[in-house]
Amino acid sequence: MEFEPVIGLEIHAQLLTDTKIFCGCSAKFGAAPNTHTCPICLGMPGVLPVLNRKVVEYMIRMALATHCRINTECNFARKNYFYPDLPKGYQISQYAHPPAEHGWIELEINSGKKRIGITRIHMEEDAGKLMHDERNPVSLVDLNRTGVPLIEIVSEPDIRSAEEAAAYLRRLHETIVYVGICDGNMEEGSFRCDANVSLRPKGAEKFGTRTELKNMNSFRNVQRAVEYEIKRQQYVLESGGVVAQETRLWDDTAGVTQPMRGKEEAHDYRYFPDPDLVPVVIDEAWIDEIRGSLPELPLEKRERFMRDYLISSYDAGVLTVSRALADYYEEVVRLSDQPKIAANWVMGDVLRFLNEEKKDVRECPIAPASLAAMIRLIQGGTISGKMAKEVVEAMYKTGKPPEEIVKEQGLVQITDEVALARTLAEIIGKNPAQVEQYRAGKEKVFGFFVGQAMKATQGKANPQLINDLLKKMLAG
Amino acid sequence: MELYGLTIHELQDRLRAGETTSAEITASVFGRIDAVEKEVRSYITLMRETAMIEAQAADVKIRKGDIGILTGIPIALKDLLCTKGVLTTCGSRILQNFIPPYDATVVEKLREAGAVFTGKTNMDEFAMGSSTETSFFGVTRNPWDLERIPGGSSGGSAAAVAADECIASIGSDTGGSIRQPAALCGVVGMKPTYGRVSRFGLIAFASSLDQIGPFTKDVEDCAIMMNVLAGYDPKESTSVPEDVPDYRQFLNKGIGGWTVGIPKEYFIDGIDPEVEAAVRRAIRVVEEAGAKCIEISLPHTEYCLAVYYIVAPAEACSNLARYDGVKYGFRSEEGRDLMEMYKKTRAAGFGAEVKRRIMIGTYALSSGYYDAYYKKASQVRALIKRDFDEAFTRCDVILTPTTPTPAFKVGERTDDPMQMYLSDIFTISTNLAGVPGISVPCGFTTAGLPVGVQFLAGHFQEGRLIQFASAYEKQAHIEQRRPKL
Which of B349, B379, B409 is the last residue of a domain? Predict the structure, then answer.
């Protein structure tokens, strides 16, 4: 029997607010344990939450970027469960009345464009972190993360393959980083993904039993885990078994998903509206204000790049992968007026250097103005494209402007016709046999002279000039 | 009259006139505590040393003419208000060693107003109870009859005022926990409108019902205390930014021409005849003062107890989840793993009544039952609130008994939760509707037990309640008896 995978993703994204969702503590990552805490996020007796308005604003940004309908009123609910990283014994989340629903994003897949629905986006607080000491039978808890704002983005079960899952995740990641509300760091856990996977016979309406996959901290792992899980479920079903509804953890090293131990009993979270918080009212004026402040989204930017800069869809895709890279590219274009050439340099050399060092374009030692200056040097014939390869590498290493590097390394292209003619005359004088052959019509030999000329000038000569002069001189 | 026996306003007159000092008043109160506390047991923690220091600091201020609303006045705090550096137990073993790192907003406000804190008063565990018998720290006795309970849950705060172990005190009221003990101890107790007094730092029982209020010896003191307590708090999302009047302006103004609603549902079978008689006398008193009494109906009254015992335990089971032995308070050392540590800690840390309510609440919120219980209760609650809204279109205040009976004996109802819950039958609706209420003494039974009458008004009409209670107090000439201790 042929099976069709049905996949939905749940994404938790930490928001880049300065402070936590319900208290004034810093929401920054990486501080010493339990230093970003106060009685409120520690869940002390008697404390009360007050909502950080910035969290609502950030949620609205993402809701608008994913075409969600924003509800004018939503409320917070308590999700009750016991765990040592949850100091109140409940997480403040949203349940029955989410703030944003019915959105979508569009993917480009082999067969064309596909929309993946977004069921809902809601706000909630993050939990703390447990640390287990391998040598001692103790566990420590760090509550710095407790109360850091999250949005949860739940997709419709519209995804049909591991590739689509990864593509959806990438698109959502790109969007959330674009709108500036999350740093998207999957390794540090500021962008986390769980996947619900089930199989059904092809053509069937009804969904099969799903498993929930956790612990996938990269795009690649999401794709691998979903791929594995599809195969595993297929095997189970084909061998006459039933898929158990369970949570499974992705084991990166073993490359398999495994049932999560100890959490098998079904949770009843006893959701109810949090009586300590009042409903959140979101009016049209606020939504409009936020809409006005949204940056151009990746898809729009991509289309504009193709239209205005006449670059390929692939190039536009690469250059808009982050807002910072797109801004970098556009700045180079603005200063060089060479969109196509700028695209080649940014995508070729600059990105290669950055990738080698795992750096972000914001950390790039080559300023857009420097790259533009280099492009102008090529256009003006001061340096050759080949020289430019060396120049750009030196620029990256030293951070110096191209003019300085060209000067320091004596890389200036020889454009002095008299000097070059003298060199060429020497070459011609030393190789009478080849001159004979050329004049006899063996035009191939021309390449030999060019090679000799480049060698003699250590590649600094303007190739066009060599061509012109050689032709004249060989013609005798 | 000893200093401890005076009211806030009487003491303030003497302080202003330089006839006494806060140090003398405070010493007088602690002398009284030394004399009667072993019998009454109002307090869990006494703050004698800091109180004396605060009193001396108050005297320095008074000499400079820097007199705040409560400068130098000894005030007791219910032990569910967080006090920085001072043990705060909520009457529970599970918080037997909890010392908060912060002050509740009302504690800050009282401090700001110059109050001297005498200590933390006994209460039913997590404010769950009507007799102060569920406290882990022992039973508080009714100063009028030591065989009897003082009411609850703020029984310690009520008894402390009645026994002159403080000049005034703070309690909290979730279903009658201020008004019921005020009635049973013969003092004035007010539950303000939900949102009027900050709950920040009040250890939560049921968040949508809890409200802090004062116990005082008379209505004027109640107005003074409300001047300190009331006001918007940005630390609380449910706090209401409504202007706070000077509540003293409502004193001694008369109630001629006012309409008083007498809800027919509040004079029921099972009400003690002496209580009913005292309340009927109170009706005549307000009529003598020029008010017109009309019969009104609050048709959903019969559902109040049922609604309350869904909503309050539901919120409580969630509010009390944080007491898990992980971060603070009591932890059982017997657990071999996490789950066992949780179970043993909570089994040993909470008393029977708290556990009963956690179980009721957990059940009411559980999947499959939520709609039938919590959701339904919330809908009926809206109807109860509407009853009050409609009633207040017909009358200025509502008058009812505060409690169906006078103080009962220690142990009398501890084995019968239903009987215990019925002690709050006249006070619970107020919390469900969020409206303010006040209990004022209205006489004594032949056995010498105090009886209270309750006045209710619309949202944020505390001023109206004070005006009405002040006029009643003046007209009624309630015998100035003191408990014989």
Answer: B379
Give the count of beta carbons closer than 10 Å to the beta carbon of residue A90.
Answer: 25
> Has B423 been annotated as catalytic?
no
Q: Output A321 or B187, whichever has higher pLDDT.
A: B187
Q: Which domain holds residue B359?
A: 303-379
Q: Is B355 a catalytic residue?
A: no
Determine which one of B153, B157, B172, B429 is catalytic. Answer: B153
Task: Tell me the pLDDT tens digit for each residue of A204-231.
Answer: 999 999 999 998 989 999 999 999 999 9
| Angle at CA of residue A349, ends A347 and A354, nearest 5° | 85
Q: Is the pTM of this model over 0.95?
A: no
Contacts (Cβ under 8 Å, ≥6 apart) of B416: none
Q: pLDDT tens for residues B327-372?
A: 999 999 988 899 999 999 999 999 999 999 999 999 999 989 999 9
CATH number assigned to the domain comprising residue B32: 3.90.1300.10
> Which is catalytic among the residues B42, B154, B169, B177?
B177
Residue A263: pLDDT above 60? no
Nearest to B322 among A89, A270, A278 (CB): A89
Q: Which of B319, B333, B344 to probe by mutation at the A interface, max A CB count within 10 Å?
A: B319
Q: What pLDDT score does A265 carry?
A: 56
Is B92 designated active site?
no
Q: Inform me whether the C-beta atom of residue B326 falls under 8 Å from chain A C-beta atoms.
A: yes
Task: Tell me the CA distances in angstroms from B134 to A467, B91, B138, one per residue in order.
Answer: 103, 8, 8
Q: Compute the distance between CA of residue B154 and CA of residue B179 in angstroms, rounded to an integer.
A: 9
> Is any Cβ of chain A less than 8 angstroms from the Cβ of B197?
no
Q: What is the ipTM of this complex?
A: 0.96
**Which sequence spans correspond to the domains of chain A?**
3-286, 296-408, 417-474
In a domain, B99, yes or no: yes
Q: Is B264 on the interface with A (CB under 8 A)?
A: no
Q: SS3 of A286, please? A: helix
Size of the A and B interface in Cβ pairs below 8 Å: 101
* Contact status, residue B228 vs residue B190, Cβ threshold 8 Å: no
Task: Tell me whether B347 touches chain A (CB under 8 Å).
Answer: no
